[in-house]
Design goal:
Blueprint (H helix, E strand, L loop, with lengths): L1 H22 L19 H4 L5 H4 L7 E2 L5 E2 L6 E3 L4 E7 L4 E5 L8 E4 L6 E10 L10 E2 L6 E9 L6 H4 L6 E10 L5 H7 L11 E7 L11 E6 L10 E6 L3 E3 L1 H7 L30 E2 L12 H4 L11
Parallel strand pairs: 1-8, 2-15, 10-13, 10-14
Antiparallel strand pairs: 3-6, 4-5, 4-11, 5-7, 6-7, 7-9, 9-10, 12-13, 12-15
The structure holds 2-acetamido-2-deoxy-beta-D-glucopyranose (NAG) (3 copies).
The site of one 2-acetamido-2-deoxy-beta-D-glucopyranose has 5 residues, from strand 4.
GO biological process, one term: one-carbon metabolic process
GO molecular function: carbonate dehydratase activity; zinc ion binding
Protein name: Carbonic anhydrase-related protein 10
Length: 317
């Protein structure tokens, strides 16, 4: 009897060890995608902690309707510190993410705009399409852009760090830049796209020194702003969105390089990373405010000039 039961136990021992080995690398946090049965429509059902993704009524991204913008004279100019910082550029399997180094001594502050607090830059996310007609999360008048770059910060006056602020009131700011196809790229964006071969697979990361976050910004003081959520699970409704009223440029070659990135690791590359965007969510009567004063942009008796001040997709070159 004894030899039999020890053999039996031995088999179970191996079985349990295999189960643990197989299951540890797959955490809840990884269990979502941008398509199929783990895609955006199901995020709120996959994990009970992500319920806001399905139930929330102040979700992001949204479609921006140029004719529905509300001019708000109290909106301040947006401020972003201009000094450079070190960080890590990674392929997370969901996005291309640049994160500032931990415990940086000179944080890049984000303030002004619609913000009542000072925020501290934490990371940048890049969303992009498999072809030029799609890729951005926010759309303008129903039009998508080939990519969108989102600069995230956390409220450093109320909270200790980004992960803490994610689920707290007034926790997060996201400054969004829509990327338009052009012949000449934004120079700072090139810092990312030059190195993509080093982060081809999910989980790969590389150091980036002296990155200038503010260098990414287009030359405009005009923006649109609304209260929404993060666009990835858990979809916390703690994000103040600021969408700048001019795109920055990305070249065909840079988009091509982005489209070579894969979600999985070298052994199991899975699908390309491209098309990593959440579709627009209903506004549910939220106002979208702007600091563009339509009335001072052109003489009132010359209505044809007013046409040019609306944010239009595909209209800069
Ligand atoms: C910061 O620390 C966390 C946890 O120790 C680590 O996972 C992360 O990769 C670090 N980030 C950077 C940018 O070094
Ligand atoms: C950014 O904010 C911190 C406090 O969070 C402050 O110590 C620092 O001086 C600010 N940086 C700049 C460049 O103003
Ligand atoms: C963030 O701050 C919270 C609250 O102070 C703390 O419990 C947590 O350990 C911090 N997380 C990181 C990654 O530093």
């Amino acid at each position: 009897m004894a030899p039999f039961s020890s053999v039996f136990l031995g088999v179970w021992g191996v079985f349990v060890v295999i189960l643990i080995k197989e299951s540890t690398p797959v955490s809840w946090e990884e269990w979502w995608t941008y398509d199929g049965i783990s895609g955006p429509a199901f995020w709120g059902l996959i994990n009970p902690e992500w319920w806001l993704c399905n139930k929330g009524r102040r979700q992001s991204p949204v479609n921006l309707e140029p004719t529905q913008l509300l001019f708000d004279p109290n909106l301040q100019p947006l401020h972003l510190d201009k000094h450079r910082i070190n960080g890590v550029l990674a392929n997370t399997g969901h996005s291309v993410v640049f994160a500032v180094e931990n415990d940086t001594r000179h944080p890049v502050n984000i303030s002004g705009g619609p913000l009542s607090y000072r925020y501290q830059f934490h990371e940048i996310h890049l969303h992009f399409g498999a072809d030029d007609r799609i890729g951005s999360e926010h759309t303008v008048d129903g039009h998508a852009f080939p990519a969108e770059l989102q600069i995230f910060g956390f409220n450093s006056q109320l909270y200790n760090n980004f992960s803490d602020a994610l689920h707290k009131a007034q926790g997060i700011v996201a400054v969004s830049l829509l990327l338009q196809l052009g012949d000449l790229s934004n120079p700072e964006l090139r810092t990312f796209t030059q190195q993509l071969d080093k982060i081809k697979y999910g989980g790969q990361a590389m150091e980036i020194k002296r990155f200038g976050v503010r260098e990414l910004l287009p030359d405009t003081k005009h923006y649109m702003t609304y209260d929404g959520s993060t666009t990835m699970p858990a979809c916390h409704e703690t994000t103040t969105w600021i969408i700048l009223n001019k795109p920055i440029y990305i070249t065909k070659q840079q988009l091509h390089a982005l489209r070579q990135l894969m979600q999985g690791d070298e052994k199991q590359p899975n699908a390309p990373l491209a098309n990593n965007f959440r579709p627009p969510q209903p506004l549910h009567h939220r106002p979208v405010r702007t600091n563009i004063d339509f009335n001072v942009q052109g003489p009132k008796n010359c209505p044809t000039m007013n046409r040019d001040i609306y944010y239009k997709a595909n209209s800069w070159k």
